[in-house]
UniProtKB/TrEMBL annotation:
UniProt keyword Repeat, yes or no: no
GO CC terms: plasma membrane
InterPro entries named among the record's database cross-references: GT87
Organism the protein comes from: Lolliginicoccus lacisalsi
Superkingdom of the organism of origin: Bacteria
Gene Ontology molecular function: hexosyltransferase activity
Membrane topology: Multi-pass membrane protein
Name by which UniProt lists this protein: DUF2029 domain-containing protein
Length: 411
């Protein structure tokens, strides 16, 4: 009774009011222009990358996929795109909650939907009108299909997103480590097939390789919360940038090794935590990280319902405030402080969440080594011996047996 009215009206407000109203930043206009140009056999890659307006950065395979939008009137196409992404976020929230044992009738569903649509990530995805909602759904479906051993299906959402933007590509490390080749068939086959079809239909596909692809590898100094983006904006020396990126890379690699070594049997916890760490590292250490990418970290935050979650502490949620909040920190009396807080809060948030994961895992490893229980895993006794553990279905927690079982398939 309390949560549903807030959730429903927040969804309507973000989708129908704020998103339909639009903003100065319009990510959809270059998408629509590219779709109409593709359908009319005109040049698609016309951007001047010296300008700061949104650019069209999809490869020819992505152009082919978004081309049906060109058959619609602009306003109808944009509103359709907004609704599709809003529905994608709702479906992703539903499946993510189902993985953790919560149904649509539980209070967790409206609370989660309210929380998601209150964030900058979801709000600006709809307002600016880009496809992050669909990418978030693809991430959740990929995790879901891996957990359910529907390996052929796992490659489908991955392949469809890679064909447009390869932001989820690093997550293919999970089936690679388990020697599961089926997801790679769809993940790599779908983009190749779409590119093969789109290349001869495009008028200027070579310009994507010649001009757009090199631009994607550069660190721009606007709307970029990555370390390199802030370095360009603030003029930081190269040695400092290299040190920051190198230090965060070490933290990430150690965290991923500990997760794989001690938690890979608890697949839901492992996949949601490790996937979020990998993607956060990509946003922070890579060439481009935009705040609304933080939607893809929702799986890590959902693990808070698990007793062994690494985000059951206040610094993790201080970090989440930094990269999720819709608040603006510009200040009239303290202009420089306000601008710095506004520009850097996402970078600090991503950095802090990676540090939190690292510190929690290292502390657990040190405690387990001191107690001589490393062979039982990193979880302290009060978590291992908990009879309730969580509402998570057993098949998602230990689908291949508990650590130490003789019939451990993964070993």
């Amino acid at each position: 009774m309390v949560a549903w009215p807030f959730a429903v009206l927040t969804v309507i407000h973000r989708t129908i009011i704020l998103a339909f109203n639009g903003a100065v930043t319009n990510d959809f206009l270059p998408i629509y222009t590219a779709a109409t140009n593709f359908l009319n056999n005109r040049d698609v890659y016309l951007d001047n990358f010296n300008w700061t307006h949104p650019h069209y950065l999809y490869p020819p395979s992505g152009t082919l996929m978004i081309s049906p939008l060109g058959y619609m009137d602009y306003d109808i196409a944009r509103r359709t795109y907004i609704i599709i992404n809003a529905v994608a976020v709702l479906i992703a929230a539903y499946y993510l909650l189902k993985l953790f044992g919560f149904g649509i009738r539980s209070v967790a569903f409206p609370v989660t939907v309210l929380a998601m649509f209150s964030t900058e990530s979801v709000s600006n995805t709809l307002i600016y009108t880009n496809m992050n909602g669909l990418i978030f759904l693809a991430e959740v479906l990929f995790i879901k299909f891996l957990l359910e051993r529907r390996l052929w299906w796992a490659g489908v959402p991955m392949g469809l997103t890679i064909a447009i933007k390869p932001i989820l590509l690093p997550l293919l490390v999970f089936p690679f480590l388990k020697k599961q080749w089926q997801p790679f068939m769809g993940a790599l086959g779908i983009p190749i097939v779409l590119l093969t079809i789109a290349w001869p239909l495009s008028k200027d596909p070579a310009r994507f390789v010649r001009e757009t692809a090199p631009y994607l590898a550069e660190s721009r100094d606007y709307f970029n919360s990555a370390i390199s983006g802030n370095a360009v904006y603030y003029g930081l020396p190269d040695w400092l940038v290299l040190g920051l990126r190198g230090g965060m890379s070490v933290i990430v690699l150690i965290s991923l090794w500990l997760l794989f070594r001690y938690y890979r049997h608890e697949e839901l916890f492992f996949l949601c935590t490790a996937a979020s760490v990998i993607l956060t590292a990509q946003f922070l250490i890579g060439s481009l990280g935009q705040m609304y990418y933080s939607m893809l970290i929702f799986p890590l935050l959902m693990t808070v319902v698990m007793r062994n979650s690494v985000v059951r502490n206040w610094p993790a949620w201080l970090a989440a405030y930094g990269f999720l909040t819709f608040d603006m920190w510009y200040s009239v009396p303290w202009r420089h402080f306000g601008e710095a807080a506004q520009f850097l809060r996402t970078t600090f948030g991503w950095s802090l969440i990676l540090i939190v994961v690292f510190v929690v895992l290292i502390n657990r490893w040190l405690d387990a080594r001191r107690l001589g229980t490393l062979h039982e895993g990193l979880d302290p006794p009060y978590i291992r011996d908990d009879v309730e553990y969580s509402k998570i279905p057993e098949r998602y927690r230990y689908p291949e047996g508990r650590p130490g079982d003789k019939a451990d398939v993964a070993e």
